[in-house]
Amino acid sequence: MNNVISINYIIATYSGISKKRERFDKGITPSTLQMHLDKLIELLPTTRIIKQITITRPKVDLNKCYKEYYEIKDKIDIIEKEFSIPVKVVDMNNYSTGVSYSQYRRAFQDYPNFDFYMLMEDDWIPIQKEFDTLLIREWEKHFPFHNSNAYLCLWYADIMKYKAHAAISVGIISNKALTELSKWCKMDTQLDQYHFSLALQHIGTEIRDFSYNGENWKILFWETSKGVIYDFSFTIKDKECLLAPLQYILKDKYGFQIVPKQTP
Description:
By secondary structure, the protein is α/β, with parallel strands linked by helices. It has one domain (7-212): Alpha-Beta Complex (Spore Coat Polysaccharide Biosynthesis Protein SpsA, Chain A). The chain is built from eight helices and twelve strands. It has helices at residues 19-22, 32-43, 73-83, 100-110, 131-142, 175-184, 193-202, 251-254, and strands at 7-12, 50-57, 87-91, 116-121, 124-126, 150-157, 165-174, 206-209, 220-223, 228-231, 243-245, 258-260. The strands form three sheets. It has a seven-stranded mixed sheet with strand order 3-2-1-4-7-6-8, with helices on both faces. Strands 9-10-12 form a three-stranded mixed sheet, with no helix packed on it. Helix 3 (73-83) links the parallel strand 2 and strand 3. Helix 2 runs parallel beside helix 3. It is globular.
């Protein structure tokens, strides 16, 4: 693998109070970002091509947010001083940019010079050592070039009456894909998860997944309304996770259950 490859690891965040998230979260929601960074700090010594971590911070009413959510200075200091990886915090400029896909696009707008952008959420974490190298290896199985107009997500599927899209969208996307998207779609255009995929497909981006329906990596998803971890894998093989919801590493501590889920 070419050592000059660079990844900007983007964490989309939201500090707004969410009664829906709180219902089954065992009290972890206010410290979600802190726990994400703790896991990242654990794994960073095994990585090679994470060259920046970008935390996007949407504007939230100060009377309707978790005050402790962004208390992460000590963790940023560890990342920057021990691993020499810069951590950038990007403040979104209005209240309508809490959607993760606007945050990813803004991070690219501010830092457009990386080969890849790893699209993560505050409550999604890497699980494996060398996760950056593993993702690039998966990329090379699907696409001929590192600069292909392409996007590799955890799970690409047609579910819930939607056309095939990045149903679980965490993963990596190329600089070329985000560059082309920025030419076609204005920054102030809000894209939800489904329409983010459709917009990319409209500009010719090839979307694939690295899970192979669970044959390669397990497909887990935290169902907020049920308080369970759904397993969408299409196989009985007990594969490992590459990326997973935060609740996966807390399942033993808090009793979160993994439940096989048939695709609707």
